[in-house]
Amino acid sequence: MANKVKYGLKNVHYAVITEDAGGAITYGTPERIPGAVNLTLDPQGEQAEFYADDMRYFSAFANSGYSGSLEVALFPDDFKKDVLGYIEDENGVLFEDANAAPKNFALLFEFTGDKNAIRHVLYNVSASRPNVSGATKGASIEPQTETINITAAPALDTGMVKAKCEPGQDAYETWYQQVYTYTPASE
């Protein structure tokens, strides 16, 4: 049965993208980002309109992916090293390197929903550095979160932007073991 509503962001994972010299794309093993709080994605792309015969003759939207933000309790150091290029020295001190080239990644996640937990993947995501904030403890403790801005573009090899999988589909149980990619149906 299909969901009527969605809620409950959880199981956020990232898988670093590697592109070989020939342009082939591979995804690393998905790694968990615990403490998911909020994911907001707005569609990107322009509307093209063409007028002829005194009316709108043609109209289409370009799909340029999504942009938005991901908020979590704290981004793990492994994410900062794997994606953002942070460097850790032999003493375990983590450095933010201004000259680091961030890596793109696939972002996997799910929304609980009223009937099913629908699993999603965005194929070509880039991210900003997380915000830094803190507040003093008062009469109550209010945890502070970290947020990154993200852009999800079409995958360079297939043009796919995102995919979703529902319980009962073959890929559902292994969704977080490897990034599920598009394979055209054979003719």
Which percent bin holds the helix content? Answer: under 10%
The backbone outline, from C-alpha atoms, is globular
Low-confidence stretches: none
Residue-averaged pLDDT = 90
Derived from helix and strand composition plus strand pairing, the structural class reads: mainly beta
Multimeric status of the protein: single chain
Order of helices and strands: EEEEEEEHEEEEEE
Q: Report the sheet with the most strands, covering strand number, pairing sense and barrel closure.
A: 9 strands, antiparallel
Termini separation comes to 31 Å
Would you report the number of β strands?
13
Number of helices: 1
Beta-strand content estimate: 35-45%
Describe this structure in words.
By secondary structure, the protein is mainly β. The strands form 3 sheets. Strands 1, 2, 3, 4, 7, 10, 11, 12 and 13 form a 9-stranded antiparallel beta sheet that branches. The protein contains 1 helix and 13 strands. Helix content is 3%, strand content 41%. The longest helix has 6 residues, at 77-82. It has one helix spanning 77-82; strands spanning 9-19, 25-27, 31-32, 36-43, 47-52, 55-61, 66-72, 87-88, 94-95, 105-111, 118-127, 146-153, 162-165.
Secondary-structure map with pairings?
Blueprint: E1 9-19, E2 25-27, E3 31-32, E4 36-43, E5 47-52, E6 55-61, E7 66-72, H1 77-82, E8 87-88, E9 94-95, E10 105-111, E11 118-127, E12 146-153, E13 162-165
